[in-house]
Every structure is written in structure tokens, then in C-alpha cells.
């Protein structure tokens, strides 16, 4: 039995139903996370960790106390539910922050299997992972794993992975001051590294921001490091088109600090800037991964499942960032390793989402069975 926490958006609930249908073992839609007065020694720590990375932070001491108590009660409910139904597989969307995090951790602490679901960074694919999403994913971080996998069978190493990028377009802008315009503004731009900013309160940042810690921290680090760029180079920064938190003040200060080595371009299409760049710098944005389709070097400042040496370039601190920017012509990657990694994502990791005759999403039963087996073996 699959017990999934309602997505409350048609697309999410449709994907949950597709999962249940492909599994063929029944499903239960949990409309909300209940509340329980049950006492568990892990509850307070679980709630505090979830609160620390919650997307919506409460205001004031009282607000934080109330939110913490809510998370404790939600954790206790989830823990009790899965203790009573140990055969149920807990499934929720993202599951990295706030209430969804205590839901999935309550299931884990009760000994139940779990699956995290999220849209993949490629069209027509989803994430189904027993460990988590993004940097918490179960994907190995060792280059040797992907080399060995690619060598095991013919057809595993090639260019078919590029089909993952078919239909990939830049995210539609939700802000009037951030757009996806044509590339006319890039004419004569010179050599630059592109920096697509992320949503500041997204779980990618709050949980996996690494040494920069935040979008503001990244901007400050880039302002310092940009001064190491050779003459004729610059960093080209674009704000996230969906972010409700403007970075204008921080970017203006960074541009002044960098003494002309930073350009703000909120108007040009994101992938046009990727294509025209000599490389991409990111904390852990999916744009960094999608830059692989343009064969660009990628510097990763935070935690990311694709921050594998040779696939991308992990940057461990300000000195390493300054050193990388001092010699941008030397940035690169290993094409064969990157192809093996991307082929694994294509052929193994990201399930395809097909469209049934009724227009509803469909998942392959064999793929879902494999994912459920992984979840059950991991609990």
C-alpha cells in the first residue's frame, strides 16, 4: 500500500495517482498531516531541524514556538500512523522542509519505507528516490561508479542522453523586472561566466547551500572573487524569474565591489546566456545541470548531486573560487565521464512520464516496482 501526502495541485496529485496505478498495490491519499499527542524522544530534534529549513519562517519567539509545537504534533501523528501500518510506503512531494519533512521522518523512524517525489530537471521525467531529492538523492558521488556502469554494456555510453534536453525551455518569468527576452543584448558581450541565481528560501539553498550559505552569501563571494578575473572577462548574473525576493540591493553592492567585473542581465533568456557563456557558476541550480547540454564547464559552490569532479567542478571555499576565476580559460570537464553520468540519469535514475489516452500521466510498472524495491530495502 502506498500512503501519499496530498499535493493539493492537480499535477502533483495526478502523478501520485500514476504511481499508485503503476504499483498495482493500492493507495491511500492523506489529505493532511494529522496531529497527535504521542511522545517520542526524537520529536523535538526532528521538529527543530524541519523548522530551521522551513520555507515560511514564523515571526517572533511566539510564532516559532507555535510552529515548533505544530511540527512536533505532526511528527508524532506520522510516526504513529506508520507504526500502525508498517507495510505502507510513505510518499510525499520534495519532503526536505517543514511539515513534509517531519511526515517523511516520522515514517522513517517508524521503520516504514519511503519515496520522495519531485519533478526532474528534464521534461517528461520525475524523481522517485528513497533517500531524498537534490543533494540528498541516493545517486553515487564517485566518478568510478559511472565509468564502471557505462562499461558494463554496449549502448550505455553515447550521445543519446542529449535527448533529455529535448523541449527544455527557460522558466517562465513571474516578475516584471526579470524576463526571457532574445539574445540581442549579448552581441559584443565578450567572455563571461553566467550565474543564474536561485530562489533564496528554496530547500536547495536552506539545506544545501554549502559554504556560501545563501544567495546573498554567494553574491558577496562572487563580488570578491570577480576581481581575480582576467581583463576582458566578467560575471553575468541573472535573478531567478520566480523569486519573490528581489536581490537588487545586494547585486548593486556586488557590482560596485567587483569594479566592473559583474554585469546584471535580467532581460535575456536564461539558456541564451548559458549558450553564450564560457561556463556557469551555481550553488546547485538545475540550470547548472542543464548547462551540460551546451557542453559548458560548471562550477558548483554548494551541495549538488552533480558536483562530481570531472562532471562539474566542486568549489570548496573563497580561495578556490578566486583561483578558478583567475584562470577561466582552464575550466573544463571530462566529456566521457559526463556522458556516462548523464546516460545513467537517462537510462536508470529518472523515470519517464508518459501520457495515457485520457491525458493522465502514466508510469512504467516495471520501473515503479524497482523503485519500490529500493525503498523497502533501504528502510
UniProtKB/TrEMBL annotation:
InterPro entries noted in UniProt: Capsule_polysaccharide_synth
Species of origin: Rhodovulum iodosum
Protein name listed in UniProt: Capsular polysaccharide export protein
Amino acid at each position: 500500500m502506498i500512503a501519499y501526502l496530498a499535493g493539493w495541485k492537480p499535477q502533483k496529485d495526478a502523478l501520485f495517482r500514476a504511481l499508485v496505478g503503476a504499483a498495482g498495490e493500492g493507495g491511500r491519499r492523506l489529505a493532511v498531516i494529522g496531529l497527535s499527542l504521542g511522545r517520542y524522544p526524537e520529536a523535538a530534534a526532528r521538529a527543530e531541524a524541519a523548522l530551521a529549513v522551513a520555507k515560511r519562517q514564523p515571526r517572533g519567539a511566539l510564532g516559532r514556538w507555535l510552529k515548533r509545537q505544530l511540527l512536533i504534533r505532526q511528527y508524532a501523528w506520522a510516526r504513529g500512523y506508520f507504526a500502525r501500518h508498517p507495510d505502507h510506503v510513505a510518499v510525499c512531494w520534495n519532503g526536505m522542509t517543514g511539515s513534509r519533512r517531519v511526515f517523511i521522518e516520522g515514517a522513517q523512524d517508524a521503520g516504514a519505507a519511503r519515496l520522495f517525489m519531485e519533478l526532474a530537471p528534464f521534461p517528461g521525467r520525475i524523481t522517485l528516490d528513497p533517500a531524498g531529492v537534490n543533494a540528498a538523492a541516493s545517486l553515487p558521488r564517485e566518478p568510478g561508479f559511472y565509468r564502471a556502469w557505462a562499461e558494463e554494456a554496449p549502448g550505455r555510453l553515447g550521445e543519446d542522453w542529449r535527448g533529455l534536453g529535448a523541449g527544455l525551455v527557460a522558466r517562465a518569468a513571474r516578475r516584471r523586472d526579470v524576463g526571457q527576452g532574445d539574445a540581442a543584448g549579448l552581441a559584443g558581450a565578450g567572455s563571461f561566466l553566467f550565474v543564474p541565481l536561485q530562489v533564496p528560501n528554496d530547500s536547495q539553498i536552506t539545506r544545501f547551500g554549502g559554504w556560501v550559505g545563501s544567495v546573498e552569501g554567494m553574491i558577496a563571494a562572487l563580488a570578491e572573487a570577480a576581481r581575480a578575473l582576467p581583463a576582458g572577462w566578467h560575471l553575468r548574473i541573472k535573478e531567478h524569474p520566480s523569486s519573490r525576493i528581489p536581490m537588487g540591493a545586494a547585486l548593486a553592492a556586488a557590482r560596485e565591489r567587483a569594479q566592473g567585473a559583474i554585469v546584471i542581465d535580467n532581460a535575456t533568456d536564461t539558456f541564451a546566456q548559458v549558450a553564450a557563456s564560457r561556463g556557469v557558476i551555481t550553488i546547485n541550480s538545475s540550470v547548472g545541470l542543464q548547462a551540460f547540454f551546451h557542453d559548458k564547464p560548471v562550477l558548483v559552490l554548494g551541495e549538488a548531486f552533480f558536483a562530481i569532479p570531472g562532471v562539474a567542478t566542486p568549489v570548496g571555499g573563497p580561495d578556490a573560487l578566486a583561483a578558478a576565476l583567475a584562470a577561466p580559460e582552464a575550466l573544463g570537464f571530462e566529456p566521457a565521464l559526463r556522458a556516462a553520468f548523464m546516460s545513467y540519469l537517462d537510462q536508470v535514475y529518472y523515470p519517464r512520464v508518459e501520457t495515457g489516452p485520457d491525458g493522465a500521466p502514466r508510469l512504467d510498472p516495471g520501473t515503479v516496482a524497482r523503485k519500490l524495491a529500493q525503498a523497502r530495502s533501504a528502510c
